[in-house]
Amino acid sequence: MKIVLDAAEVETIVERMAIDLYLHVPSIENLVLIGIQSRGDKLAERLRILLESKMERDGIQAKLPLGTLNVNFYRDDLVKNYDSPNVRAIDINFDINNKHVILVDDVFYTGRTVRAALDAIFAEGRPSKISMLTLVKRPGRELPVLPEFIGLDVSAADNEYIKVKLKEVEGEDLVSIHPR
Ligand SMILES: O=P(O)(O)OC[C@H]1O[C@H](OP(=O)(O)OP(=O)(O)O)[C@H](O)[C@@H]1O
Ligand SMILES: O=c1cc[nH]c(=O)[nH]1
Hints:
Number of helices: 4
Pfam family, one: Pribosyltran
Protein name: Bifunctional protein PyrR
Order of helices and strands: EHEHEEEHEEEHE
EC number: 2.4.2.9
Enzyme class: transferase
Number of domains: 1
Bound molecules: 1-O-pyrophosphono-5-O-phosphono-alpha-D-ribofuranose, uracil
Largest sheet: 6 strands, mixed
Domain Phosphoribosyltransferase: 4-146
Structural class: alpha/beta
Low-confidence stretches: 80-87
CATH topology: Rossmann fold
Strand order of the largest sheet: 4-3-2-5-6-7
Radius of gyration: 16 Å
Helix content: 25-40%
């Protein structure tokens, strides 16, 4: 096992991504965050808090809506979960029509999770734009999608797995790389 990011480094990178979003999103009031469970939603919540504090500092009065997606329900390589009655696939209690959606996940790998997430989002409405943000991007793309906001580009071989731990789930922030 090799540590890629420790807790302080995860915090720094999440803060940097919040700054990046804040500076590069054309209309912050039009932004909505959608986090992919089970860690993208926790990262999206951290980003929401950081972005709202920047907005407050700059006198922008708006709340950023935050929704979550459980993509296992939709993933084309996990058909066995398709009929699971326990899976709540999407929790978005706001209008996404004409909004700029920031889709948030912890790891970006083949791109299949994002494809599945796009299906789910378009079943809800028609955003004006969808951008992808990931804490870690690794090699292994199988679809023509790429994140716009990347915390860290990590090189990993096919026989290696990147494991993200977050305080909200595992009690600590840590990104590590393991043999599969
Ligand atoms: O680009 P992809 O190949 O789709 O891989 C990326 C997905 O893989 C991981 O999820 P995982 O299925 O391991 O579930 P988890 O997040 O609940 O651990 C990660 O959290 C991403 O959602
Ligand atoms: O390395 C990987 C690949 C997919 N999902 C992960 O969380 N890590």
